[in-house]
Model the fold of this input.
Amino acid sequence: MSRYARRMAHLSARIFGEYTREKTYTATRIINEFKSMPKYKDPEIINYYPKHPEASLLLVRLREHGLFRDYHADFKEEFAAQRAARGKGRKKPDSTTKE
Done:
């Protein structure tokens, strides 16, 4: 590349807001990093929420059909059954005593 062509490329880069120096690997990586959208503005990152309610409902339905074993829910049910057998369960409010 001639000196004139190099100077014209440099001038063109300055006019159009491009990088004017020789690009090394590190400089190219940094330029691309600044060109990309910041992570705090990226909709794929800020709008990501796992679908916990849908997954929980699905697991409950699978458990009802006997296709999924939830040991924690089994434990809670067994514990509640044992408390009820001892007469320690929660008492439901009596609707007949209301005035």
User: Anything to note?
Assistant: The first helix runs from residue 3 to 15. The chain has five helices and no strands. The chain has a mean pLDDT of 87.
